[in-house]
Amino acid sequence: MHKPVFEIDFLMVILMNQKPKINNIIQLGHSRLFTIEQLSLEFSNGQTAEFERIKANAGRAVMVAAITSNREIVLVREYAAGTESYELQLPKGIVETDEDSLEAANRELAEETGYAARSLKLIKTIKVSPGYFKHDTDLVLATDLYEHRLDSGDEPEPPQVVRYPLTQVDDLLNRDDFSEARSIAGLLMVIKALNE
What we know:
The protein is α+β, with helices and mostly antiparallel strands and about 200 residues long. The protein has two domains: about 10-55, no CATH class; about 60-195, Nucleoside Triphosphate Pyrophosphohydrolase. Helices cover about 20% and strands about 45% of the residues. Strands 4, 5, 6, 7, 8, 10 and 11 form a seven-stranded mixed β-sheet that branches. Strands 1-2-3-9 form a four-stranded mixed β-sheet, with no helix packed on it. A hairpin with a 5-residue loop joins strand 2 and strand 3. The radius of gyration is 20 Å and the shape is globular. It starts with 9 loop residues before the first helix and ends with a helix.
């Protein structure tokens, strides 16, 4: 009789819960935004390996899923240098040292969209490609919106604000310019949270 696929050997679970020992870290590169490191690891089974990772030099980030009273999600269309294209995405930015994630969410929302929220709720901390990228993004649900614009002064061009009806989420998910993984995951988690 075969074990179900989801059943894991008890010894394997114990071994996998022991983090590898980091024997050495070498900095391979550094920029204003990122540091690239090579880690020499020793696993609990005695195997050694070299891994590379990218660390964000800023602290954590925040991503805001703002919902209007008409049940629209507020998106921004901005240039993405990585893909050399304009992308629709949830507003996001860095949490400053004197802020918590909810304060940062409201500030970023006001800077990028001209809205602020009376109600803010942390939904989940999202990690992008944790196999090689070390950075946390806090997903925040923002509701009870009102007009409030802050000028950050750090955008080369103002983001285009797009309000997308939640009833058309399938269309949004099929758009070529709505491809950023955090925004897609955030949208789906927020829809789930709104329906609970």
